[in-house]
Amino acid sequence: MHGSPGCIIWRYLVRRHQRGDDDPDLDYDGNGDPTDDCPYDYLVVNGVKYCGTSGPTGVVALDGNITWVSDYSVDGPCPLTDGAACATSPNYPDKYGPYERCEFTNVPPNPLVSLAFDVEPGADCSYDYLVVNGVRYCGISGPSGVVPLDGNLTWVSDHSVDGPCPLTDGGACATSPHYPDKYGPEEWCEFTNVPPNPLVSLTFDVQGDYSPYNDYDGNGDPTDDCYYDYLIVNGV
């Protein structure tokens, strides 16, 4: 389903330099000292994290190991803006497209801020949605104030169509080509990733089987062939 663009922004996200602990009141590692966490990007020497502008000068790597970690990554077409502090839907500020998926990992545990959120609504957010902490968000109510506890965000848009069949009502309705005029000969449309919800036929008038005596498909029932024009759902 095609929908409107949406952008979420979270504070203290990845920057183009190694950051320190921006919030000295949060004890991320639970050791009782909220000033030594380096919860974002850090270098580890002898089990100690270094971040900010104070590196491990003079420190001897006793175990022979040094580890570098930077937080946050995205897999998919969702771009990062504002120095990677904001994640947007694909094609923003234009509309996002169908059948898209983005997965954000290692997102810092800070409250999200929805600057713009306009996603196709649906029962249980069954069409397009953003997932934070296992909860789907759609419509115009984004996850502002929500902390991604598991460090993951997932964006999903459903449904694509290949062929001349247009989508209407914000992508919730599919029509035959040229509707409300008659469809033409030798036309083909294929819809994929349709949500598993009951279909509603508002108008359906398709050329039927005018010869009930010819069993075209050879299944023994000459009344179910739809030899001319037809719509297929679940192989029927």
Describe the protein in words.
This is CUB domain-containing protein. It comes from Emiliania huxleyi. Keywords: Disulfide bond, Repeat. The protein is mainly β and 236 residues long. Among the domains are: 19-69, no CATH class; 73-160, Jelly Rolls (Sandwich), CATH 2.60.120.290. It is 0% helix and 24% strand. The chain is elongated, with a radius of gyration of 26 Å. Strands 5-8-12-10-11 form a 5-stranded antiparallel beta sheet, with no helix packed on it. Strands 6-7-1-9 form a 4-stranded antiparallel beta sheet, with no helix packed on it. Strand 2 and strand 3 form a beta hairpin.
Secondary-structure topology with pairs:
Layout: E1 7-10, E2 42-45, E3 48-50, E4 66-69, E5 73-75, E6 80-81, E7 86-88, E8 100-105, E9 112-116, E10 129-132, E11 135-137, E12 153-157, E13 160-162, E14 167-168, E15 173-174, E16 190-192
Antiparallel strand pairs: 1-7, 1-9, 2-3, 2-4, 5-8, 6-7, 8-12, 10-11, 10-12, 13-16, 14-15
Count of beta strands: 16
The secondary-structure class comes to mainly beta
Q: Could you say what the CATH topology of one domain is called?
A: Jelly Rolls
CATH architectural category of one domain: Sandwich
Strand order of the largest sheet: 5-8-12-10-11
Q: Strand portion, in percent?
A: 15-25%
Distance between termini? 24 Å
Keywords: Disulfide bond, Repeat
InterPro entries: CUB_dom (IPR000859), Sperma_CUB_dom_sf (IPR035914)
Protein name: CUB domain-containing protein
Name the features.
236 residues, Jelly Rolls, 16 strands, elongated, Sperma_CUB_dom_sf, CUB_dom, disulfide bond
